[in-house]
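hi! just following up on the protien thing from before. the input was this:
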Amino acid sequence: MLSTTLEPERQATTNAMTRLEAAFTDDMAKVNDLIIERMQSPVGMIPDLAAHLVRAGGKRLRPLITLASADLAGYTGDAHYKLAATVEFIHSATLLHDDIVDGSPMRRGKPAANTVWGNAASVLVGDFLFARAFSLMVETGRLRVLDILAGASSIIAEGEVRQLAAIANLDMSELEYMQIIEAKTAELFASAARVSAVIADLPEEQELALDRYGRELGLAFQLVDDALDYAGSAKKLGKAVGDDFREGKVTMPVAKAIQLASKDEQSFWTEAFSKPERNDHDLQHAMALITKHDAVQTTLDQARTHVRNAKSALQIFAPERTRTLLSDVCDFVIDRSF
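and the predicted 3d structure came back as:
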């Protein structure tokens, strides 16, 4: 049980995630068993590297969304276990590739896999996990499931490439930024929820509602991540604060600060993002300007709008336990690491 010394609102949102995990403990155990089974290989480096990523932890929010959405849809088979594992494999594969692209030394507070085994091994094991994901999709026997998750994998890759192309681009519009995070983050959240509607044979209106729920939640999730890069705790984040800035990513807090910048502040942003590397002094100045213009709070306010949209999408379903759990976990996404 969580300590009652937490602020009441913060404790309530943290407990929302705990309740979701508790409600699907047995289901997640089956998913975890399936993940361990399918990441085995006679090539020893593959299960070792994959297990390193799995042991790094994480809330497994995406597969939990698949399981909870299946329950909300009234699904009674076992294909949702394979789909939840599929979603986690896709997510894990993208993490392996992202850490190489970003040069991140840490993942969830542990050394990133590429720092232990090297970039080449991480790329190839990421490919292995994608292949395992596609095998699991096929085993469900649902062509539309394959279409949705294969499409999501392509969109995620496109989002990552678009983000790479936008590095240090201070002229990037807010619309383009939102399109990037919808592709690289929200698409998998949306697909994780939607495929449960497909296997449950829900009407299109409810299928699209689950897609919208996941998509809006994913947008909120990424906006909060981007805010945390300038206002979070390194211990809770599992990575260094300011990584996005050091990597030259123009995320929402930076974009908001630039919109309100004075001429001198504009000069700082231009100079900082024109350099091949940004140092700690640059980061401190950037954080001061972001604080001055309340850009983190503005980003969080935008995330809260998407959370409200996610909750609204669930209203088409009967007001029962699982709908409440999925609705409540939206607030956890906002408050998870502040």
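Strands lie at 106-107, 110-111.
The CA atoms of residues 72 and 322 lie 6 Å apart.
cheers
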